[in-house]
Amino acid sequence: MRTVRAPATSANLGSGFDTFGVALERPADVVSVERAERTTIEVTGAGAQFIPEDPKKNTVGAVAEALDAPAHIRIDKGIRPASGLGSSAASAAGAALALNDLYDRGLSREELVPIAAEGEAVVSGAAHADNVAPSLLGGFTIATADGVRAVDTNVPLVACLPEEPISTRDAREVVPNHVTIEEMVTTVGSAATLTLGMCQSDPKLVGRGMVDEVVTPNRAALITGYEDAAAAAVDAGAYGVTVSGSGPSVLAVCAPDRRRNVAGAMVEAFEANGEKARAYRTWTGDGAEFV
Ligand code: HSE
After folding, report:
1. Which protein residues are within 6 Å of ligand 1, measured from CB?
2. Which H or E run includes 277?
3. Do the domain assignments include residue 167?
4. For residue 206, what are the domain limits?
5. Hey, which of 87, 133, 143, 198 has its CA 20 to 30 A from 119?
6. Tens of pLDDT along 15-68?
7. Are residues 81 and 184 in the same domain?
8. Does residue 168 have an active-site annotation?
């Protein structure tokens, strides 16, 4: 048997749609695998009742098939599904790492990224790698068509999760098909600033680099109370705020000692909009690990 803890992640970070991602120190999924004749899946924990156990419909079923590694797979969810915190990706990344070892496939973590991303296609319709990459590699990752680059970083973050779920499939429907040259120029400037901020573990630069006028406004409109939560976070000291992945979580970056205030301000703002919410005070973190 192999057991892996795979962390939550936040993708996009505003300016890096389908490209940027960070691993979060918490929360995380725990995935255990045992050899079996055919793949079966058992899910417990946060939101387990909403996750299909049919291997054809579950993200880890696609991973087991891609690795030709049938197994009994147990997933203990620490990350609620439809949260914008890479819930399906954490399960896929954990399963990929565990099955690769169980069956001695010898693939590197980088090589496991596209395999885990296949699992994402089952859930969202697109094999985007911007959650599975940081869940496997840790730190800040840049996933492009020709591979993945990762850098260690140390940035304080708050992820605030409102109760109302949003599916990635639905949130991808509101992504515009075209950008203007002005929007492209702004986005490139933001993305470059954010990358520099991650390389220097500088939360101010990261916050500045989250600015995005292309995808985020449409995604934010799907989240009840987003504008108030974002404004409250900035008032409480956040350097930048954006939609985490496809939402509904909202990600804020701030100084380490402002995390409590930022977290409290966002939860209060959501609650004032009739949305129960919880906040994770966290940091950028490591990738999946054996336990
Ligand atoms: N890049 C993906 C999206 C992340 O925004 O649709 C989903 O968590």
Report:
1. 11-12, 18, 84, 86, 128, 130-131, 168, 171-172, 245-246
2. strand 277-283
3. yes
4. 156-283
5. 198
6. 999 999 999 999 999 999 999 999 999 999 999 999 999 999 999 999 999 999
7. no
8. yes
CATH number of the domain to which 223 belongs: 3.30.70.890
- Looking at residue 148, its pLDDT comes to 96
Mapped onto helix, strand or coil, the DSSP state of residue 35 is strand
pTM > 0.90: yes or no: yes
* Cβ atoms of 18 and 145 closer than 8 Å: no
Residue of 9, 39, 141, 168 marked catalytic: 168
- Residue-level pLDDT at 253: 98
Please give the number of the atom of ligand 1 that sits closest to the Cα of 84.
8
The DSSP 8-state label assigned to residue 106 in this structure reads -
Q: Which residues partner with 277 through β-bridges?
A: 162
Joined together, the tokens standing for residue 146 give 């020709």
Number of domains in the chain: 2
Residue 100 CA, ligand 1 centroid: distance in Å:
25
Q: What integer is the mean pLDDT of 204-217?
A: 97
